[in-house]
Design a protein that fits this description.
The chain is mainly β. It has one helix spanning 341-345, and strands spanning 5-8, 27-32, 40-45, 52-60, 74-77, 91-96, 100-105, 114-117, 121-128, 131-135, 138-142, 146-150, 155-160, 166-172, 212-221, 224-232, 237-242, 247-250, 269-273, 276-281, 284-285, 299-300, 305-310, 325-329, 334-335, 350-351, 355-360, 365-366. The protein has two domains: 5-65 and 82-250, Jelly Rolls, CATH 2.60.120; 255-374, Sandwich (Jelly Rolls).
Amino acid sequence: MPRYVRLGEVPSKRHVQFRRPDGGLYSEEVFGTRGFSGIASILYHIHPPTEASDFKSHGTIKPKYGEIGTLRHRHLKTAGVKACGDPITGRQTIMGNADVSLGLCVPAEPMDYFYKNADGDDLLFVHKGSGRLETSFGTLPFRSGDYLIVPRGTIYRVVSNDENCRMLIIESNSAIEVPRRYRNEYGQMLEHAPYCERDIRVPEEMDTHGERGEFEVRIKARGEVTAYTYLFHPLDVVGWDGCNYPWALNIAEFEPITGRLHQPPPVHQTFEGHNFVVCSFVPRMLDYHPGAVPIPYNHSNLESDEVLYYCNDRFGSRKGIEEGSITLHPSGLPHGPQPGAVEASLGKTHTDELAVMVDTFRPLQLTVGAAKLEDDSYAYSWKPQTAPEV
């Protein structure tokens, strides 16, 4: 998010002496992207962030993908996925490609360490639960419906308040950003954007730790995890400023764009990354032309795979969907309303659907574990019960 933010104590200029109360220097860190040409923030640490006392391999976390198999529409029932691990080790990858992976996390344990994804950005969609995201930039409280965007390289820990916490995890090899068409040349959100700066939440206060001890930070890089040990608390930042930091947007703050006739899926776009987009389907007024068909028309995603994560079971163009369902409509096949859905939608004025969509511009592959969740009947759900009269 390119908006400038300043929090905590920072000196009057960059790269000048900034001293602790005991007279020693704070340690300055430039947290930047694209080789000093992209967005950046500057953080001021009590201790040098380079001061690690030990490190060791913690194994690989590369997903195991299954065979590509036959081309068909897929429905994965994930409501019964059992809680396991913590908010990092409990992540279960469902599908992915070279640009992005999607998974679920239903944590059973708290995190007793900190985490850094050095391979890309993390987007955590909180389907259920509340808590706080503890980061080097300060604490960011979260609640159900929040999108949490955590930039590459951020040290963080997810602390949940609920036993029923459930998150959709989107891990991107590129930056996750506000769509370019929503911003002017200065980075300000435009009037037609479905959300604006007022809807975005950033850390509002520092939670600076100066204590010493042994603290573990697990760093994911190149698909491997390395556990670093520091002799000081990793959240030792006294202040920072810049444009690169974690932030949150609640899906309820997304203002839907509607029209007299059915609007195409890009009106639901919320974020973008390299070769993929994230969209939000929220409760809204339906199309109001007298002859409108208020659900999606048949369409072929000629260059993209479409994934929908359903936060409830009220999706007008789908049947057999339940809360927590995931559907995959791959490129190469048209898809659209199932039999009876069009007629059932006529005359309706409002929808209560709530879902997160991810469209990828390279094919997705299911993991071995995802195959166990599949509803095999879904691919046949467009088959009519009776043949239409000619």
